[in-house]
Amino acid sequence: MDFKIIVDSCCDLSAELRKRFDISTAPLSIDIDDKHFVDDENLDRESLIAAMRNSSEAPKTASPGPGPFLDLYRKYQNIFVVTLSKELSATYQNAVLAKKLLKEEAGDKFVKVFNSFSATVGETMIAYKLGELIEAGLNRDEIVEKADKYIDEMQTLFVLDSLDNLIKAGRMGKLKGKIASFFNIKPVLGATPEGTITLLDKARGSKRAISKLIDKIGEKGENLEEKVLGIAHCNALEKAEYIKDQAAEKYNFREIIIVETAGISTVYANEGGIVLAF
């Protein structure tokens, strides 16, 4: 049986992963002042970062409507979809609505929409898991069961180097944000089981924050020898490679991969941000 993986554009993918698992993407969009960005393969990420840096307003993001998902669904027979946490975006709801519309057109097609309860490389690792399960020749029900279990157990952790977007979006008070920035305070954050974001720890300086992030892997992770660690970075390859080396030394991951943040993930993480999922 042939399967197709579809993701939204908050799923950070390398060209190799996209090709290996034949993954297609429904893009979100980003507006900053009078600039409009579509988060697809033509996105100029450096222009996006510059626009965020130069604006006093928080970026506004928009999920793909049901239409882009429906257009993709029409092309395939058996489809697995991975979306942003429904607590963070309307993308999941639109992907489900597109599934309902498809049923009216072609009731014989199979579509399973997975709420990632995460974002960025969390979505990547779910797509990666689906790809491996498909490669292993599992049937549809087995893939759904194992993917659901993976999502339930998955951990997402991240460190923000810049608090600008949190302050602009009103998620951190301006005075509190300025004090944190002045004292070089870096938050260590994680995804809750409900798919929202929570503060796990904080540190003064990027190096200490990264050290705490690496320690959190051991605190949060189980059966790491069976798992793949995904690391997404926003213009922070040196940091990502350091984390990869440290994680390989401290933990026995089956594999460790590094990807760059795409547009929506760049908005979340901002320049210098690091996101882990496993």
What's the CATH class of the largest domain, please? Alpha Beta
CATH architecture of the largest domain: 3-Layer(aba) Sandwich
Secondary structural class: alpha/beta
- Largest beta sheet: strand ordering: 10-9-8-13-11-12
Distance between the termini: 28 Å
Total helical segments: 11
Cα radius of gyration in angstroms: 18 Å
Instruction: Please trace the helix and strand order, writing H or E for each element.
Output: EHEEEHEHEHEHHEHHEEHEHEHE
What's the rounded overall pLDDT mean? 92
Main beta sheet: 6 strands, mixed
* Strand residues, percent: 15-25%
- Low-confidence parts: 175-180
Count the domains. 2
Number of strands: 13
- Residue share in helices? 40-55%
Shape: globular
Q: What is the third-level CATH name, the topology of the largest domain?
A: Rossmann fold
Model description:
43% of the residues lie in helices and 24% in strands. It is α/β, with parallel strands linked by helices and 278 residues long. The chain folds into 2 domains: 4-153, Rossmann fold, CATH 3.40.50; 156-277, Hypothetical Protein Tm841, Chain: A,domain 3. It has a 6-stranded mixed β-sheet, with helices on both faces. The chain has a 4-stranded parallel β-sheet with strand order 2-1-6-7, sandwiched between helices. A 3-stranded antiparallel β-sheet has the order 4-3-5, covered by helices on one side. The longest helix is centred in the middle third of the chain and has 15 residues, at 91-105. Keywords: Lipid-binding. This is DegV family protein. It holds the Pfam family DegV.
